[in-house]
Write a structure and sequence with these properties.
The chain has about 180 residues and is of the alpha/beta class. The protein has two helices and 15 strands. It is about 20% helix and about 20% strand.
Length: about 180
């Protein structure tokens, strides 16, 4: 009987988690941008921190509309972060005081493509590689962070950059692939 009760509790937990995610994507995610209604942002921050446990709660955080983060089980976001609209986070550990501009994509998986005799769509995905964004980082609009990359503390990633390698602390990187443009003094 004990095994069945544990199994039942586990299934209830999974169903409740999925229900919370469904509510996020159907309702919470669709609320207006904070420039139109600040209450929407406050509710989103509350929901992703207190209900989904994806983000640390902070009254100074922003979590705008149309942010995709899958099931959220492989994502942790620190306090005082600003995550703008249309951000895609496959998986990441994000520190405190981080700004993600609109349309940023953070990827933790890719597709296998080494066998030229098999269509790429049939070759499957790579293993999960966590992305780490340390504290006090600013990632510009339309930047793409590739799997396994560490964006070091104090970094700025320029708009449109594709970051394929980990960065050094307090640097400004940009381009495709991203390279050091300048060191922050």
């Amino acid at each position: 009987m004990g095994g069945n009760a544990i199994y039942l509790r586990f299934n209830i937990f999974i169903v409740l988690r999925k229900l919370k995610i469904i509510i996020y994507y159907l309702i919470v995610n669709k609320l207006p941008h904070s420039r139109f209604l600040m209450l929407s942002n406050r509710f989103r921050v509350w929901y992703v921190s207190k209900v989904l446990h994806v983000m640390e709660y902070s009254k100074t955080s922003y979590f705008e509309n149309n942010i995709y983060f899958g099931k959220g089980d492989l994502i942790r976001i620190g306090s005082n972060c600003q995550i703008n609209e249309n951000v895609f986070i496959q998986s990441a550990r994000i520190g405190d005081n981080v700004m993600l501009a609109p349309n940023v994509a953070i990827l933790s998986k890719s597709h296998h493509h080494s066998d030229i005799n098999t269509p790429m769509i049939l070759q499957g995905e790579t293993e999960h590689q966590e992305v780490v964004i340390e504290s006090n980082v600013w990632i510009g609009r339309n930047a793409i962070i590739m799997p396994g990359v560490v964006i070091s503390e104090g970094c700025i990633v320029g708009a449109g950059a594709v970051v394929t390698r980990s960065t050094e602390p307090n640097t400004i990187v940009g381009g495709i692939p991203a390279k050091i443009i300048k060191r922050r003094e």
